[in-house]
Amino acid sequence: MARAAMRAPYLSRDEERDLALRWKERGDQEALNRIATAHMRLVISMAAKFRNFGLSMGDMIQEGHVGLLEAAARFEPERDVRFSTYASWWIRASIQDYILRNWSIVRGGTSSAQKALFFNLRRIRARLSQGREPLSTDAVYREISAAIGVPEADVAVMDWRLSAPDTSLNAALPTDGDSSSDRQDFLVSDAPLPDEVAFEAIDDERRSGWLKQALRVLNERELRIIRERRLSDDGVTLEELGETLGISKERVRQIESRALEKLKTALVKANPDLAAAA
Known about the structure:
Elements: H1 2-7, H2 13-26, H3 29-38, H4 40-48, H5 57-74, H6 83-102, H7 112-128, H8 137-148, H9 152-163, E1 172-173, E2 181-182, H10 194-214, H11 220-230, H12 238-245, H13 249-270, H14 272-277
């Protein structure tokens, strides 16, 4: 691809404008191909400027080609500007977006200030260290913050991100013994242990069975009150339930209290250990 791009002829201003008009007005695919082929050397040159980020040149060229096609779709031939000048922004933006998406599994900011910080931090830091006394880290962060227009905290975070590549949690750590450990083995989790989860599920199922059995001692009205007042996610008020049943809210309270006592008695009778636990 690189050799073919370098052999492609340059376009004059008139040829460029004619091809752009053919593509824009008639959707002439051949015209688009000629524009793209003539400017692939620009894509390759732009991708080469970002080779220090450790990503595949081929992939960056492909992304740059996407930006080139986007520029061709948006280019306005009637404006007095060369296509290469217009396309450079789209090509660079496409390559930079690709780098930001793939340089690290940790996603960074995508604002213009954050992009400027990502792509210029190293260059600005190197410039600050030339021909002057060494600056403290805080002083460097302050000057970079002022130059790019981002908070010092963002500069510190980006500097840390750029200082080393991502590390896999499955990477083995050196140990004194024969067995090896992964980094993830030393991560602390607040989640319950598997046996605790299993015991909790078993206990929930057992309690559910006890309650289902105890509810059988209630009559129809008591059962309805307990279900709507105690076993519903959105428990109704005494007044609302009284209006539905045609009784006062105080009567609903009395029936509910009696039903709860009946449930307690039934549960203790079926499971004597509950009385001791209470």
